[in-house]
What we know:
Blueprint: E1 5-10, H1 17-29, E2 34-38, H2 44-55, H3 60-84, E3 88-92, H4 95-105, H5 110-121, E4 128-133, H6 136-146, H7 158-174, E5 179-183, H8 188-203
Parallel strand pairs: 1-3, 1-4, 2-3, 4-5
The site of the ligand Cc1cn([C@H]2C[C@H](O)[C@@H](COP(=O)(O)O)O2)c(=O)[nH]c1=O has 12 residues, from helix 4.
Enzyme class: transferase
Family: Belongs to the thymidylate kinase family.
Binding site for ATP: 10-17
Amino acid sequence: MKGKFITFEGIDGAGKSSHVEWLAEWLRGQGKTVLVTREPGGTELGEKLRTLLLNDPMHLETETLLMFAARREHLAKLIEPALARGEWVVCDRFSDATYAYQGGGRGLDRSKFLTLEHWVHAHVQPDLTLLFDLPLDVARERIALASRVLDRFEQERAEFHERVRLAYLERAHGNPSRIRVVDANNSLDNIRKTLEQIVSTNCL
Length: 204
Ligand SMILES: Nc1ncnc2c1ncn2[C@@H]1O[C@H](COP(=O)(O)OP(=O)(O)OP(=O)(O)O)[C@@H](O)[C@H]1O
Ligand SMILES: Cc1cn([C@H]2C[C@H](O)[C@@H](COP(=O)(O)O)O2)c(=O)[nH]c1=O
């Protein structure tokens, strides 16, 4: 049977990464072979681009093009071959993040996003996207509690992150069959029950 492509999305600190490995293990328990990966990153080149993207100031269009360059490499080297082998791919962020961060957060012209999306992966879209949604102040509190060094995006002002959140919700509204909004202002256990239910209903 064909593999599925599942992506995780949400504002910084929404709690995505706390569930990516968990979902992969749960799917393995259902007999699936699962590849876990992330964006920007996933490949050797993509991880180098990630370091630049998360640390070096750059023009908005440079940032957008590098996100899609990393994505092109990721699709060619990891995602498409894994799906072709019948494996499942669980990816921490994908193009919805460009829509939300570069589009919503920074104001990139939507037609430029659509052109790049069409060029780079018109033929591949996630089967399911889990959008972790929660109020910004809760996400900020979680990040503060984790006391980690903040990257270039995490250092952005609250208004930037509010715009990112709204853009994600707007994208979900426009793609209701692919993007499922998960209430991330909840316990890990409750979120996991929700994920099990969504994935079972939509993918298994
Ligand atoms: N449901 C939850 N309740 C309380 N704390 C949580 C919950 N989920 C995650 N956290 C904590 O919040 C912090 C951020 O979580 P995590 O790294 O999973 O978020 P993220 O969405 O992947 O963030 P980023 O995109 O910035 O990497 C971590 O310290 C994590 O332990
Ligand atoms: C794919 C993608 C990512 N970003 C931003 C969003 C996050 O702030 C960082 C990645 O960090 P994480 O801890 O792994 O979530 O990159 C973006 O702005 N645009 C994108 O397309």
